[in-house]
Amino acid sequence: MHLFYFIFVTLSATLAYADFDLYDGYVKGWQDDFPTSTWFVFASPPNCDDVFSSLTQSYAEMDDVSGDHTGVRCEGAGCGSPDRSSDPYNVDVLEMHFANNPLWHFTIYKDRGSPYKMYGLDGKTYGECIPFPGHSFDCLDWVIARSASRMFRCYTEVSAAEIEGGER
Hints:
Blueprint: H1 2-15, E1 18-29, E2 36-42, H2 48-53, E3 58-60, E4 71-75, E5 93-100, E6 103-109, E7 116-120, E8 125-131, E9 136-140, E10 144-156, H3 160-165
Antiparallel strand pairs: 1-2, 1-10, 2-3, 4-5, 5-6, 6-7, 7-8, 8-10, 9-10
């Protein structure tokens, strides 16, 4: 009986987490002079249909994502889009502000150990991220190009679908 309980608790804890991948890249419209540095969130490696299925999976890279400014702020030599020089092992700070309602605002810090803990604005840990390069996409439709390389996989209670559904 104790073995069954242990297995049930272990599986329940495992199922409570949803992972998502973070990609660093760019979006460029046919009339744009320069590409826009952009981060993308996906539940699994996307194909081009996935990349264009929803515009809400992308977050602009910004210098300030405090207050109600959603987006991603990246510090360190590893932050390099749109030229694909990004390297997750050289990202010092990654601040992700995905939604205001509910408030999904997390920051990971390289100097606090690996795996990188996801700290909320309240200082609590909401999951962890690991450097996870190895997949990229280059997608083009009639008027827009989207290109990115995977940087991190994050394990948290918040799924990619929940992030996409949050109010910005």
